[in-house]
Design goal:
Blueprint (H helix, E strand, L loop, with lengths): L2 H14 L12 H6 L7 E6 L6 H9 L2 E10 L15 H15 L3 E6 L5 E6 L1
Parallel strand pairs: 1-2
Antiparallel strand pairs: 2-4, 3-4
């Protein structure tokens, strides 16, 4: 929600020639996502935000994702902490719970890639 960082993004979008195709909305992500129409409109979404909000973002995006569409979620291994039940930091607990929920979600297929800090590739059925 930073004008400073979005100013950097605007320059990158301009350099890439895609600025005319991007609609920037600055505000709380959950509120912004809930304000979008519920019809399936996305082919791709990338989530890299506050980890405790990932579960909400996942659900809000999934209902708007077209069948066959992809959602990538970054930082899904939390430095390996997700497999250590002794780690109780709220971000780790949230990502651990989301990993379990996605793995059990019949609406999707998922692949967790051990790239960087872990990237989940979720495909809507």
């Amino acid at each position: 929600m930073s004008e400073e960082w979005t100013a950097h993004a605007r320059v990158a979008w301009q350099d890439a020639g895609v600025a005319d195709r991007i609609e920037l909305r600055i505000g709380p992500a959950s509120k912004t996502l809930r304000a979008l129409p519920l019809d399936e409109q996305f082919d791709f979404a990338f989530i890299d935000a506050d980890k405790t909000g990932y579960g909400d973002y996942y659900e809000e995006i999934l209902v708007r994702l077209r069948p066959g569409g992809l959602m990538l979620l970054d930082n899904m291994l939390q430095g390996g902490a997700v497999i250590n039940d002794e780690v109780t930091h709220e971000s780790v607990v949230a990502i651990r719970a989301l990993n379990d929920a996605i793995a059990a979600d019949p609406r999707v297929r998922v692949l967790l890639l051990p790239i960087g800090d872990g990237v989940s590739v979720v495909q809507k059925r």
